[in-house]
Design brief:
The chain is built from 8 helices and 7 strands. The protein is an alpha/beta fold and 216 residues long.
């Protein structure tokens, strides 16, 4: 995931908005208590997501993959007045921790956490989302994209994380590296989709910015 030197990354961090204290605390607690803490969005990516949301001022945000709530809080910072963010995760062991973090950030009124398999939850959600963030199991990225596309308004954004997959997207991956294969296939689907404008950014582990311009 380290595509630029640590010195350059620190320079970017130092010249960007600082990480809010509550998010810094959530990051520290996640690293102390939760496995695979590298899944956390962290300072720089978190400020990017917050900035993007503030530009859009969305009324409705959907997040697929909550982890410990860091990215949901960042995205919710840009919600329009009365706006709502729905975040879905299937890990019951993190439910209490997620809700505590959301409350700690004073976001309980803005963020609705849904425990469940996204493929079961997505069909029952009403559409009209202004912004969707996908950061869940990589095998199902293409499935999630297909399920949420019709629920995103024209001009809305779909933001997808980990699309460079530690650089494996430009390598000959092993046949049993299912995540890398799924990411490469997903990236190809997006790059050829005429219904969207898209740009792949080398931020952290890669972020795809996708803007819906056609229904079909």
């Amino acid at each position: 995931m380290d595509f630029i030197s640590s010195i350059l990354q620190q320079y970017c961090d130092d010249h960007s908005d600082p990480e809010p204290a509550v998010l810094r605390e959530i990051s520290r607690e996640t690293h102390l208590k939760v496995l695979r803490s590298r899944m956390l969005s962290e300072h720089f990516q978190g400020r990017f997501l917050s900035f993007l949301s503030k530009i859009l001022m969305p009324q409705r945000i959907l997040e697929i993959g909550t982890y410990t709530g860091y990215s949901a809080i960042c995205l919710a910072e840009g919600l329009a007045q009365g706006g709502k963010l729905i975040t879905i995760d299937c890990n019951p062991e993190l439910e209490t921790f997620i809700k505590e973090n959301i409350a700690k950030a004073n976001m309980s009124e803005k963020i609705q956490f849904v425990l469940g398999d996204a493929q079961d939850v997505l069909p029952i959600l009403t559409g009209g989302f202004d912004l969707v963030f996908i950061d869940a199991d990589k095998i199902n990225y293409s499935a999630y994209y297909g399920m949420i596309f019709g629920k995103v308004r024209l001009g809305g954004l779909i933001v997808v994380d980990n699309v460079l997959w530690s650089g494996k997207v430009v390598e000959d991956v092993k046949s049993n590296d299912f995540d890398a294969i799924a990411i490469k296939e997903f990236n190809n689907v997006i790059s050829k989709d005429p219904r969207v404008e898209k740009i792949l950014l080398p931020i952290r582990d890669g972020i795809f910015l996708v803007r819906k311009i056609k229904e079909a």
